Here is the input.
Amino acid sequence: LVRTCQNGALARMSELLAKYDTLASSLHVIEEYLKRARVILSQLPNSVGRDGLWALTGYLLRQADTLGVAA
Here is the structure.
């Protein structure tokens, strides 16, 4: 479905994701990776780069939350 990207593939993919409840488990994995990233980032010295990466993890968490709401 992903490789060919034919008409209706997205709808079919959404049906499969809902049928097997994969979104919830995927969101959990995403959130766990981002939490681990924040633990590692908190060990680094303060810097503009660290602040940017911290902000990126926040953005990605919000995007993941949005996926859960949209489902």
In short: Helices lie at 9-19, 22-42, 48-70.
